[in-house]
Amino acid sequence: MKPVVLLIDDEPSIQFGFRAYLNKTGYDVQTAGSIVEAGQKLTQRSFDIILLDLSLPDGNGLDLISEIRQNHPEVALVVITGRSDVPVAVKAMQLGADNFLTKPVDMNELNVYLSKSVELKGLRSKEITRKRLDKSTEPYFGESPAVKKALELANVAAGSDSPVIICGQTGTGKGVLAKWIHEHSSRRSGFFVEVNCSALKGDLLSNELFGHARGAFTSAHQDQPGLLEVADGGTLFLDEIGDMDLTVQAQFLKVIEEKKYRRLGEVKSRQSNFRLIGATNQDLPALTKNGRFRLDLYYRINVFPVTLPSLRELGGDINGLILHLLKSLHYKGTGVPPDVLNMLRRYCWPGNIRELRNVLERGLMLSGGNLLKPLHFAGLDLSSSGMFPEGKESSIENAEMLHVKRIMEQCNGDTAAASKILGVSRPTLYRKIKKYNLTNH
Question: Which among 105, 113, 325, 352 could bridge 311 via Cys, Cβ 3.0 to 4.6 Å?
């Protein structure tokens, strides 16, 4: 994609000359002849570089600098001025300009300035992103000992570059925790690239990760970079890594070991310096025993495991989580009535935090944003699902089976609608249907 330049100058000859040269050297050039027109252009699209002449028909370009810096802090700003106005140019830099050029502008010098300006804009954007992440709201998982232990481990993981595997049931917040680790790591200025291994199978997943060269297959009309390339310098998050096909597992093992890969249909090797975080709701050691997950890959990714507890393991700590989620949903009330809290605590929550959030959101819609009441949660089936004590896995699974069956019946077999109500992905719902031998109408 071409860097976009906004030239703010009222002389048509200068506009023509700059546009001709910059278009030829690989830039997309927009022009404005006044402060008013420049303001309009700046509201219509984003720019990588602004070239600003200080002498404009409707005012002094100096007056525009502060506004540009306030509304577009990442953009590179170069002032163009006459040789006799160098002190004014210095003042422009004090106001926020990055550099200045004197007329008549040497085009070779301009080209050097623009190249540096593009780099400056990129660095500044990363720094702004980093500061924004530093101020981001911390995720809340509760205050139970199990949660605190998981967060302590996540904090240690953020300080290293080793592979992390996050374990936990569907909906416990594995993806949220993975992103938190990335945002608090040394790679936070890079991309957080998420891939759902249960949604893509075989060649589709391989193509998504590695990319392909033009002509690699019939519909490959152009080169396509893979997500490994995008994750270079950042974090690659493989959600539901236990569902990755064995063929792709073999390919990916080599990537982890060497940090090298090839696009499909390409001979040359490429490098990607990414940090790996995986997540799974399955028992990976059990998968290795039945041949569904490579043991050598398991050893490579299981460097730093972190386990998130299920919602039913939180016990009374669910109260704090409910209040936190309600706040994130902009609930204006000061609290939750005890009868509502007791009702929510009695439920089994097979979809964990994700399901709890969906149920609370629905309750708020039904209440019109007013005080929550038990009637706003009438859809919860409490007859067969409660907060079972630990060790009662058969009872818990039975409750989950009955709950999934009931929701599927309510949705007339519509898996898309059922998965949304349950707060789980469709692939996860399909696994539960198969596990409990439920009819998918």
Answer: 352
